[in-house]
């Protein structure tokens, strides 16, 4: 073989040096061309809210066939929304098909925010948890719809806290809406916890206080071998264990942070916080099934449906399946099941607080103006009084007060009344850009305490210290 | 007399086409053939690696719309001095040692037993290889059901033996042991396959000679089988150790790092840093450090292997 060129003549170190230099140069050129882009939809260097603003009036809509895409996590409400929207929205916009794309709950945050990070989304409307709003707003990922809401939405028709919880940023510190704050979303689905109890085992009257609830569960467990006293969320995924602790914390008079001073250490682990952790780990946990330390929505539902729990706590929006005879061993009809299952608002103790669940609709800043216009139109349509009532009749949990008081809602499943009674009692978590890290710290530490991997007091102090460090570093580092 | 005249060869060759380019030289041809693969390598592997290296010296976050700020070695210092990272390192180490050790013993044992069979070797080998063909996510999901404390088949079997149910995935050290068991179930066949290749390559005449000398079974194993298979086994161990070191999928599916963070491995922690906090700079430094650890360990290991070969 002959070489016409100088192949193989270059000395090895020289070739290596040239190759390295070329690679580094390529990387640097690409680095200079890539990252740090300021060509996205918004956001400023101060990390303050700076997303693009939606117009006050809805721009002209296309009559061409179009698809309006949502992103949510996989659960019955997602299918209900898609069915409802395609049945009803098509009456006003026959050229539009609604798609609700779902991901597993554990991937929900990542699925949305990795697309936001790429400044390109395959969804027009992100269904964000209320706590995700801060992160999305700070990064300029969603539209500011303050002007749109002022011109198109009857804000007086809502409980102000629900509007604040699902759309406002910065978060309403007192639970009241700040009329001057910017709005980034509108309610899609309201939700809170319901207490599910076995009427056939503990009687028709649900326990009124948290202490009474624990005593009742213990007696029920002792009296009914094979049935556990309690079933609740304990998993270290999503926000499962954290919501459980925060709920008990609230009921026993604790607070999870001082939002004004951004103070967590010394707040969440104060005397009330310690009492809540003690109640959760030492009084409630022993009444749960063995191996329930990784239970979340599905597992709690399974325990209730199989008759294995005297009292359970569950999100209302995830409770529908409990009344399905095909999924239950408690009866062969809905009526038979309801003879055995009762749904009630959470017991009170020092306070009557309940956790805020549910989600709002938020428009991606990275889709075309035409898609954003369609999304605005959908939101305006969805928030109308008659549509909210139809949504209630279709199994959704509306947020308008008139819809919450309507027969379409209250004559539905028994947990609908529970939601209506709980609205004024709801408390949310931190709605800050560092939410994902804060929730992970709390989830893992509460889960560790529940499963014997950490002493409860130590776990609580670790939560306080680590969460404070995250807030102080604005989410940077490990 | 007849004479034939052969036309000169030059006359039969067609003249070069006017304007035709000169033939590609060997070097240009080589470059032409290699460049697609080289470009692919450059953009799919080299560039991301260099990009990650660059980001590792910055405070860049892919979601926060701020320009990357050079922070020097701060990310590396933070990682190396973090108690969280130390804890995950110990967990990963315990997992790697436990899983690879168990897989090596079992894999070699199974391979040894199969190699002694005269019939059905192929069928047995194929059957043992089935777990390796499955996706780790699928494996994780069905083991999660099997390990379920309430209705899992494992506890059901324990119950039928009169034993108490065990909280496999929610208590320590059970959760870590469960991860090791599942990984062992899936990857023992890999070690077995390589060990089997080594065992079948041992020359028969050595055993024949040992038989003539009336050598015991243990003597044959100790002085013939094991020394000849050992270098090949070590290569399998290296591959498995590298794989185990970057374990993510099984942890994600089976325990999600729990209880608490007890089964969080380094890879799982990197995922959280990268996608929960979106601290891209820190996550890049974390990833680079993990690559460095693997490279350094592999170097030491390969040197040992080379020495072993020289002996």
Structural description of this entry:
By secondary structure, chain A is α/β, with parallel strands linked by helices. Chain A has two domains: 196 residues, Periplasmic binding protein-like II (D-Maltodextrin-Binding Protein, domain 2, 3-Layer(aba) Sandwich); 206 residues, Periplasmic binding protein-like II (D-Maltodextrin-Binding Protein, domain 2, 3-Layer(aba) Sandwich). Helices cover 42% and strands 13% of the residues of chain A. Chain A has 19 helices and 13 strands. In chain A, the strands form four sheets. Chain A has a five-stranded mixed beta sheet, sandwiched between helices. Chain A has a four-stranded mixed beta sheet with strand order 8-9-7-10. In chain A, helix 2 links the parallel strand 1 and strand 2. In chain A, helix 9 crosses helix 10, helix 9 packs across helix 18 and helix 18 runs antiparallel to helix 19. The radius of gyration of chain A is 25 Å and the shape is globular. Chain A starts with 11 loop residues before the first helix and ends in a 6-residue tail after the last helix. The N terminus of chain A is likely disordered. By secondary structure, chain B is mainly alpha-helical. Chain B has one domain: MetI-like (MetI-like fold), CATH 1.10.3720.10. Chain B is 70% helix and 0% strand. Chain B contains 13 helices and no strands. In chain B, helix 4 packs across helix 8. The termini of chain B are far apart. At the A-B interface, helix 1, helix 3 and helix 18 of A face helix 2 and helix 12 of B.
């Amino acid at each position: 073989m002959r070489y016409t060129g100088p192949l193989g003549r270059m000395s090895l170190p020289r070739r290596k040096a040239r190759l390295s230099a070329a690679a580094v140069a390529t990387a640097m050129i690409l680095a200079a061309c890539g990252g740090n882009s300021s060509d996205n939809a918004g956001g400023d260097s101060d990390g303050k809210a700076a997303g693009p603003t939606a117009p006050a009036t809805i721009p002209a809509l296309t009559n061409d066939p179009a698809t309006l895409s949502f992103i949510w996590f996989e659960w019955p409400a997602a299918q209900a929304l898609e069915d409802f929207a395609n049945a009803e929205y098509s009456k006003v916009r026959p050229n539009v098909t609604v798609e609700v794309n779902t991901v597993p709950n554990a991937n929900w945050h990542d699925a949305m925010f990795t697309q936001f990070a790429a400044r390109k989304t395959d969804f027009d409307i992100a269904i964000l948890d209320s706590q995700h709003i801060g992160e999305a707003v700070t990064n300029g990922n969603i539209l500011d719809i303050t002007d749109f809401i002022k011109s198109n939405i009857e804000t007086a028709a809502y409980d102000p806290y629900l509007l604040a919880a699902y759309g406002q940023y910065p978060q309403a510190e007192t639970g009241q809406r700040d009329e001057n704050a910017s709005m980034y979303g509108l309610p899609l689905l309201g939700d809170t916890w319901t207490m599910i109890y076995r009427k056939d085992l503990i009687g028709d009257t649900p326990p009124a206080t948290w202490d009474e609830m624990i005593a009742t569960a213990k007696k029920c467990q002792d009296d009914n071998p094979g049935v556990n006293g309690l079933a609740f969320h304990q998993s270290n995924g999503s926000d499962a264990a954290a919501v459980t602790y925060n709920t008990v914390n609230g009921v026993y008079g604790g607070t999870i942070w001082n939002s004004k001073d951004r103070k967590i250490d010394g707040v969440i682990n104060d005397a009330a916080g310690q009492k809540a952790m003690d109640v959760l780990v030492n009084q409630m946990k022993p009444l749960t099934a063995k191996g329930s330390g990784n239970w979340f929505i599905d597992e709690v539902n399974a325990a209730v449906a199989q008759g294995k729990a005297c009292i359970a706590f569950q999100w209302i929006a995830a409770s529908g399946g409990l009344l399905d005879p095909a999924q239950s061993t408690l009866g062969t009809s809905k009526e038979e099941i309801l003879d055995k299952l009762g749904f009630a608002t959470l017991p009170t103790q020092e306070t009557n607080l309940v956790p805020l669940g549910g989600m709002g609709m938020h428009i991606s800043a990275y889709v075309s103006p035409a898609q954003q216009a369609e999304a605005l139109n959908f939101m305006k349509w969805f928030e109308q009084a008659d549509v909210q009532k139809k949504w209630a009749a279709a199994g959704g949990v509306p947020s308008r007060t008139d819809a919450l008081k309507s027969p379409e809602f209250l004559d539905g499943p028994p947990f609908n009344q529970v939601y209506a009674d709980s609205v004024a009692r709801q408390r949310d978590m931190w709605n800050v850009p560092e939410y994902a890290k804060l929730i992970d710290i709390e989830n893992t530490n509460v889960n560790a305490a529940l499963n014997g991997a950490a002493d409860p007091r130590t776990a609580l102090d670790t939560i306080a210290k680590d969460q404070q460090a995250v807030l102080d570093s604005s989410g940077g580092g490990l | 007399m007849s004479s034939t005249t052969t036309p000169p060869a030059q006359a039969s060759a067609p003249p070069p086409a006017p304007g035709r380019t000169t033939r590609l030289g060997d070097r240009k041809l080589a470059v032409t053939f290699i460049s697609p693969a080289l470009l692919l390598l450059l953009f799919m592997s080299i560039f991301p690696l260099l990009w990650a290296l660059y980001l590792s010296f910055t405070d860049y976050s892919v979601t926060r719309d701020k320009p990357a700020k050079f922070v020097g070695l701060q990310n590396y210092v933070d990682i190396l001095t973090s108690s969280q990272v130390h804890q995950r390192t110990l967990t990963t180490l315990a997992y790697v040692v436990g899983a690879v050790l168990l897989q090596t013993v079992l894999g070699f044992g199974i391979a040894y037993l199969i190699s002694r069979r005269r019939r059905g070797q192929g069928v047995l080998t194929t059957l043992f290889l089935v777990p390796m063909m499955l996706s780790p996510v699928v494996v994780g999901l069905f083991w999660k059901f099997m390990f379920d404390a309430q209705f899992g088949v494992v506890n059901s079997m324990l119950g039928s033996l009169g034993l108490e149910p065990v909280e496999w995935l929610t208590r320590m050290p059970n959760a870590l042991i469960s991860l090791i068991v599942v990984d062992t179930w899936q990857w023992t066949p890999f070690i077995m396959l390589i060990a089997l290749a080594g065992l079948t390559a041992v020359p028969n005449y050595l055993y024949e000679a040992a038989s003539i000398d009336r050598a015991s079974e243990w003597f044959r194993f100790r002085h013939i089988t094991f020394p000849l298979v050992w270098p090949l086994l070590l290569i399998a161990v290296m591959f498995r150790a590298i794989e185990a070191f970057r374990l993510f999928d099984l942890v994600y599916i089976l325990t999600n790092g729990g209880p608490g963070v007890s089964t969080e491995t380094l890879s799982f922690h990197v995922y959280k840093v990268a996608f929960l906090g979106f601290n891209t700079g820190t996550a890049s430094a974390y990833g680079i450090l993990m690559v460095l650890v693997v490279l350094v360990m592999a170097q030491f290991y390969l040197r040992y292997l080379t020495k072993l070969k020289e002996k």
